[in-house]
Amino acid sequence: MYSKIALSIGGSDSGGGAGIQADLKTFMALNVHGCSAITCITAQNSFEVSCVEAVQKETLISQIDTLFSDFDINALKTGMLLNESIIDTTALKLKSYSIPKIIDPVMVSRTGSKLLEDAAINAYKKLLLPIADIVTPNIFEANLLSNIEIKNKKDIELAAHNIIELGAKAVLIKGGGLKEMQGKDFYFDVTGKSKWFINKFINTKNTHGSGCTLSSAICGYQALGFELIESIERAKAFIERSLEKSYKIGSGPGPLGHYQSL
Predict the structure, then answer these.
(1) What pLDDT sits at residue 115?
(2) At what angle do helices 153-164 and 139-146 cross, to 10 degrees?
(3) Which residue range or ranges hold the Pyridoxamine kinase/Phosphomethylpyrimidine kinase domain (predicted)?
(4) Which tens digit of pLDDT belongs to each residue from 149-176?
(5) Cβ-contact 66, 35 below 8 angstroms
(6) In the predicted model, what is the mean pLDDT of the chain?
(7) Which of 23, 88, 253, 258 gives 8 a disulfide partner, CB atoms 3.0 to 4.6 angstroms apart?
(8) H-run or E-run covering 157
(9) Are 46 and 252 in contact (CB under 8 A)?
């Protein structure tokens, strides 16, 4: 059943809704075996992040090296990398692997809260984007990467062009940060191919981890051997089903229902 393997490199969400936890639940729902390399540990629940602590560089390198020394990993994704040192380390290690790389630039939450140290933004642009097969920013992250203040559909398309110029092979900008663009994501790649992915908008406040889940679903489908465009289409459908089954467990936004999305 689990003949393919995917790797998530990112942060741990102690509340279980996003980060590594969301990625592993997504991989399992797709019948893909999930591995993880933890970049940072967070103390969080449904309404706050009270602590974030990065792992040592040597610990991160050891995790990645140990996994690749034994497992035939078919695709990987990155999530929360937190600081310049972790970005440098991750980019250096991933350059040598020719498997699909999905870079989810976890910089700003979909509500606009900054999740990345300022010094790390340039490292993302210079080191990670050039090795990305696809980068999956939300509106706020696309603002930072493209230097465009995105206000509408035209701005999204222009921002995508700017991000491709930074070296990524493809970009998928998630439109959910703009009310009129909810459920709509824009794809653009180095060949000039563009596509709007439009899905049904699920009206729920329980969206914690939706960005992580989308990128890990793309990664999972890539690990299964699907081409990138079909992986995105399938991942978008997976997100739609997961949002329909999302649930509330605390006083803030709840997580997606990954386990009911088979």
Answers:
(1) 66
(2) 50
(3) 13-256
(4) 999 999 999 999 999 999 999 999 998 8
(5) no
(6) 92
(7) 23
(8) helix 153-164
(9) yes
Q: Is 63 helix (H, G, I), strand (E, B) or coil?
A: helix
User: What percentage of the chain has pLDDT greater than the value 70?
Assistant: 95
Residue type, 108: V
- CA 234 to CA 231: how far, in whole Å? 5
Sort strands 49-54 and 33-44 into parallel, antiparallel or unpaired.
antiparallel
- Quote the tokens at residue 175: 């439109």
As a whole number of angstroms, the distance between CA 228 and CA 133 comes to: 9
Identify the CA nearest to 216 among candidates 201, 235, 200: 235
Angle between helices 84-94 and 57-70 (to 10 degrees): 20
**Alpha-carbon span 138 to 143, nearest angstrom:** 9
CATH of 12-260, one of 3.20.20.450, 3.40.1190.20, 1.10.260.40, 3.40.50.300: 3.40.1190.20
Contact residues for 240 (Cβ-Cβ < 8 A; gap 6+): 199, 200, 202
Chain mean position to CA 70: 25
Residue whose structure tokens are 């990625």? 23
Nearest to 20 by CA among 47, 38, 44: 38
Q: How far apart are CA 254 and CA 125, in angstroms?
A: 31
- Please count the other Cβ atoms lying within 10 Å of the Cβ belonging to residue 129: 21
**Measured between alpha carbons, how far is 80 from 260 in angstroms, rounded to an integer?**
25
